[in-house]
């Protein structure tokens, strides 16, 4: 379906106006040359009437994009006038001695060649049919009229319709390929969501159950034992187990992508520790560590708070292990979109202790990246200016776990 003339611009692109103006000037020069070759008209409309008619048709090309039906109608009217002049008033609008075999305006082939993209099929066929009849004159077939008329009218229409059909086919195939790609993407997303839910179910049913038993046994040991050291150790085990349950619950909630936690689940986890405590611990072991907080802390999911805490914890642990003698700086920036965490350290002043550096698994930053990306954040880690190291995380304010849902 084509646009209405009221909504179609005169020239959709400046290039359209340029090539239409160029074509109009070329055909105007051609028609002027043909007129000079045939001589002035002896008819009552004046010696230049045939040239004026052709020039009007030529410069109507400038309106072709905006008014294709009207330009086509002008060509039909001009062709009828030329036919009437040729049959009844020789020399009025058509030279007595014709310099060409064209019996319709010379610009007809250009208009019909653009008809498939500017007109609907029904109007194009009607316009082409009228012009074919005027150009070929089937009631008076001749070797110098009929073939040339078909070349000037039917051939441009056929070529135009072929390329328009090809363009529509390519567009249809491209749309179909994009739709298939979107469907494939949706199927992959659905498969990932199903796998996440399956993993969440396994973790909830197996790991959470074992950790809960461990916490209960540790609590019972702390109550029944008479040895203070045993009670202290049991309390430590119970507290760490409870923290592990909290974090596991967060992870299960993220994997379920906000799905409702099954009935009977433990209560929501408490917020994570304060990064300031980690800074104080770092200072206590001899690492000069600065701490700065900007912005007003807003409401964030507890899972986000714990992730920020883990980023600071892992970064300061790496500073102590791999950069002895360096200084560190921890900065937290609170904003409406979440929390930005950054930990930077300077160059180490002495080689690291092999025993201490060898205690890690080597996957701390990789695991930290996965943890940050799992809650929808962005993680960066790499060398900093002056030979130091920088760890940064941009965390959202909300992650779709049950405890993080807005109240």
Features:
Heat Shock Protein 90, five-stranded mixed sheet, 3 domains, elongated, disordered C terminus
* Shape verdict: elongated
SS field, number of helical segments: 13
The count of strands amounts to: 5
How many domains, in number, for the residues? 3
Percentage of β-strand residues: 5-15%
Neighbour order of strands in the largest sheet? 1-2-3-5-4
Structural summary, described in words:
- Helices cover 58% and strands 9% of the residues.
- It folds into 3 domains: 14-152, no CATH class; 188-255; 275-404, Histidine kinase-like ATPase, C-terminal domain (Heat Shock Protein 90, 2-Layer Sandwich), CATH 3.30.565.10.
- Residues 258-271 and 402-407 have low confidence and may be disordered.
- The protein has 13 helices and 5 strands.
- With 407 residues, the protein is of the alpha+beta class.
- The radius of gyration is 41 Å and the shape is elongated.
- The longest helix is centred in the middle third of the chain and has 71 residues, at 154-224.
- The two termini are 50 Å apart.
């Amino acid at each position: 379906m084509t646009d209405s003339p009221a909504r179609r611009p005169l020239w959709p692109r400046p290039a359209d106006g340029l090539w239409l103006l160029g074509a109009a000037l070329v055909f105007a020069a051609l028609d002027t040359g043909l007129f000079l070759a045939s001589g002035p008209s002896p008819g009552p409309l004046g010696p230049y009437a045939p040239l004026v008619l052709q020039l009007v048709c030529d410069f109507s090309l400038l309106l072709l994009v905006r008014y294709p039906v009207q330009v086509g109608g002008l060509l039909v009217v001009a062709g009828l006038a030329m036919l009437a002049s040729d049959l009844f008033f020789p020399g009025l609008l058509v030279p007595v001695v014709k310099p060409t075999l064209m019996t319709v305006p010379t610009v007809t082939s250009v208009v019909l060649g653009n008809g498939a993209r500017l007109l609907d099929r029904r109007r194009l066929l009607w316009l082409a049919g009228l012009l074919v009849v005027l150009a070929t004159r089937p009631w008076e077939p001749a070797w110098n009229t009929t073939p040339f008329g078909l070349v000037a009218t039917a051939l441009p229409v056929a070529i135009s319709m072929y390329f328009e059909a090809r363009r529509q086919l390519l567009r249809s195939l491209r749309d179909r390929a994009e739709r298939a790609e979107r469907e494939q993407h949706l199927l992959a997303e659905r498969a990932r969501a199903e796998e996440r839910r399956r993993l969440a179910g396994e973790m909830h049913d197996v790991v959470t159950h074992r950790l809960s038993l461990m916490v209960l046994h540790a609590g019972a040991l702390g109550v029944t034992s008479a040895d203070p050291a045993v009670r202290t150790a049991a309390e430590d085990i119970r507290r760490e187990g409870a923290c592990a349950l909290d974090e596991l619950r967060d992870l299960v909630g993220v994997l379920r992508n906000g799905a409702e936690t099954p009935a009977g689940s433990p209560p929501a986890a408490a917020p994570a520790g304060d990064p300031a405590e980690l800074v104080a611990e770092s200072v206590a072991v001899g690492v000069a560590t600065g701490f700065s907080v900007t912005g007003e802390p807003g409401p964030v999911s507890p899972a986000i708070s714990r992730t920020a805490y883990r980023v600071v914890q892992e970064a300061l642990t790496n500073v102590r292990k791999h950069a002895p003698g360096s200084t560190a700086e921890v900065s937290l920036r609170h904003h409406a979109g979440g929390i930005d965490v950054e930990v930077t350290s300077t160059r180490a002043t002495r080689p690291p202790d092999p025993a201490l550096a060898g205690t890690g698994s080597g996957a701390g930053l990789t695991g930290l990246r996965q943890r940050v990306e799992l809650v929808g954040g962005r993680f960066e880690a790499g060398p900093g200016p002056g030979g130091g190291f920088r760890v940064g995380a941009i965390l959202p304010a909300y992650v779709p776990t049950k405890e993080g849902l807005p109240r």
